[in-house]
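ARCHIVE CARD
Drawer: 12
Card no.: 0347
Subject: one protein chain, sequence and derived structure
Cross-reference: see card 0346
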Amino acid sequence: MTLKSTIYKADCQIADIDRGYYQKQIQQKPERFINLTVISLPKPATDQLAQLVKRVMQLQFSLQNGQTWVSDDQHTAHIKPEIWLALH
């Protein structure tokens, strides 16, 4: 059975030390990382998403050409994820 794994990395200082971190880890044990995708969410996008967080949320999502817009009644967050690594 083949499983697919996706890692979503929200922008934070420690994780940004080396963008090549994931590639280095995979080169050491490539058989462990079949169907792996690493996606980074840039800091401006996560800041925009933070504005949408409430105790009760009703969000609308629009997806087009690899970009996502998330909105509520007051704010809209534009998310353009960066695919750092894709192994299939």
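Annotation on reverse: The two ends are 14 Å apart (CA to CA). Strands lie at 5-10, 36-41, 60-64, 67-71, 76-79, 82-87.
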